[in-house]
Amino acid sequence: MASVHESLYFNPMLTNGVVHANVFGVRDWVTPHKMALLVLLSELGRAGSQLGLLERRRLNRLLLPLLQGPDMSLSRLRKAIEECCPHLASSVHIRLKLMAEGELKDMEQFFDDLSDSFSGTEPEVHKTSVVGLFLRHMILAYNKLSFSQVYKLYTALQQYFQKDEKKDGADENEMELTNPEELDGKMEKEELDGPLREEEIACSGPLSQKQAEYFLSQQASLLKNDETKALAPASLQKELNNLLKFNPDFAEAHYLSYLNSLRVQDVFSSTHSLLHYFDRLILTGAESKSNGDEGYGRSLRYAALNLAALHCRFGHYQQAELALQEAIRIAQESNDHVCLQHCLSWLYILEQKIFDSCVLLEHSVNKSLHFGLPYLASLGIQSLVQQRAFAGKAANKLMDALKDSDLLHWKHSLSELIDISIAQKTAIWRLYGRSTMALQQAQTLLSMNSLEAVNVGVQQNNTESFAVVLCHLAELHAEQGYFAAASEILKHLKERFPPNSQHAKLWMLFDQKIQFERAMNDGRYHVADSLVAGITALNSIEGVYRKAIVLKAQNQMSEAHKLLQKLLIHCQKIKNTEMVIRVLLSIAELYWRSSCHTIALPVLLQALALAREYSLQYLASETVLNLAFSQLILGIPEQALNILHMAIEPVLAHGAVLDKGCAMFLVAKCQVASAASYTPQKKIEALESAILNLNEAKAYFAKVDCKEQLRDVLYFQARLFHTLGKTQERNKCAMLFRQLHQELPAHGVPLINAFK
């Protein structure tokens, strides 16, 4: 189930996707790239009405990222302009060529002519517009240059143009050896409006203040909305180090470095960057300027709070508690209720690691509502619902509580919390065994559009909620035997959440679990055993449970029993009721295989009591099926059939294909065992009904490629056909049985070996 407190980190950079850079020591200066942009603006003004409406609209959309972004090569700039207006790109190239191959006075004349753009009653450019401000900055920066600096700029322009000419020559030689259609395809794939590539930023040189702000804003927004389009962690850190080399006190660069270190789970670097961020924030006086005398103290308490959140994220609960106490102390001294509510939320998370406590959470929700903090209040309600779900509260009450929180979300347009709420509903329905309802909620979230405004080409929903829902969707498809569809969903997850992203562990675990189930169904226990290590690394409890299942399948009963007993004690201690029930069912199966049928009954009754107490309907139905199997073994098939009718409906409605097959197989076994006391005519009808149920079970087992169960069904069918005197059908089942029996290891094929 999704963690609902992932968004409690204080993030001063991401205010509507804009980075507020208060200090930066590098001013704007004239570069060859900016001169090329000035030429573009000059030619755009000359073209005037000659440009079509569509071309002008494309150029206007292109201008803003060009003016704000870092410098780029002339070839890429030309390519960008050509896509909007080929004629204008040719004019810009010719104008630059004349300037680069001419004399220094040509460049001087060009800057003198730029001032004419502002003259007249109807100037081409308004002084306060984005383009006007850029022109004025460049003119001012050029006028401040000394003669030697002007000469260096002219030399740099010549090198800038010559480098492009050399590249064009190399490209022409390459085109002679390359299919033109392939080359056009490559050019179409380039996304000029998208995030900048690593090599382009690396060769762009030092950034000005505006470029640095734009770069940090873009990368921070991508880390939040679509991590796959952000720079790789190593490349982003390299660029941040270059920024900090020019100005070590650039606080926002330290904070982005902190976020980048969190991506790769680097404890040392993330702590180092976080502390540097708040140190620089205090030293530069940025906070005190915007918040008066409270700025200094505000930075200190939020620094302590972020440090507590960081330690909690990495599992350092003692250090987190110490940092949280410091944050609470400073917040109380400053009477900062907002900070105190954040502290209270994190205090609940820390206390939850030790014991279950609803008191803190309920108090936090009430206080958050009182102080007008809907985000925190909703997070508190989500956590309460999650805790009540594990405590076995009725689903209708939980859904009512989530409905109340949804009202807060829509009222305040809290898009992220709407996603979390739907993911919670999906997980709750999965917990209660209602796969149809879980599927409906998952589809609801996937078909929604985000309320947040993001750039074109950026995925809107690359959050933990979507990762959780997609993982549940993959597992639901795998359970129904649609392995190809599950693989497609997992492939999409791998593309959307790369292995180095923070939510990749979710799909990694589900991928390993699906592979494990397929290997177990196929009887490849050595493959399943090799997957246990990967599952254990991601979830230790699941890993130990899967190891016990493999040992049980390999008939290593004593080792499996020891492992399950240890796991049972641990799960009872941490109150993982769902796993406790699954472990009890596995222990009961071990007792059956050891012919201790009477000992299995108390274990199953204990599991049934827990499942009903905690409203785990599907697990309760599965436990009843196991009880029916026990009654069949103990010689009371009629009673087994009676309780089967109570439990089989939820299994057929919401269960996995394998469970459906096992249930129908069990019904057939009970029908055959009950028919022993029937009259001949009634016995024949019972056996024919059992054969029909076996056909249904066989279809289910074939869907998930469960060969061992298929072999058992075929053996059972062959015996029934023999009893009914149907020789042709018997021989067909016998032939299919023999083929499977030769494929699979021979452990003997008893009529009744286990429920699953």
Structural commentary:
By secondary structure, the protein is mainly α. Among the domains are: 32-166, no CATH class; 656-755, no CATH class. The protein is built from 36 helices and no strands. It has helices at residues 32-47, 53-68, 74-84, 86-101, 104-114, 130-143, 147-176, 180-189, 198-202, 209-225, 233-246, 251-263, 267-283, 286-291, 294-313, 317-334, 337-352, 359-370, 374-390, 395-412, 415-431, 435-446, 464-479, 483-496, 504-521, 525-538, 540-553, 557-574, 577-593, 597-613, 617-633, 637-654, 657-674, 680-703, 707-724, 727-743. Helix 15 (294-313) runs antiparallel to helix 16 (317-334) and helix 17 packs antiparallel against helix 18 (359-370). The longest helix is centred in the first third of the chain and has 30 residues, at 147-176. It is elongated, with a radius of gyration of 34 Å. The relative contact order is 0.05.
How would you describe this structure in keywords?
mainly alpha; ubl conjugation pathway; cell division; 756 residues
Helices and strands in order, then pairings?
Layout: H1 32-47, H2 53-68, H3 74-84, H4 86-101, H5 104-114, H6 130-143, H7 147-176, H8 180-189, H9 198-202, H10 209-225, H11 233-246, H12 251-263, H13 267-283, H14 286-291, H15 294-313, H16 317-334, H17 337-352, H18 359-370, H19 374-390, H20 395-412, H21 415-431, H22 435-446, H23 464-479, H24 483-496, H25 504-521, H26 525-538, H27 540-553, H28 557-574, H29 577-593, H30 597-613, H31 617-633, H32 637-654, H33 657-674, H34 680-703, H35 707-724, H36 727-743
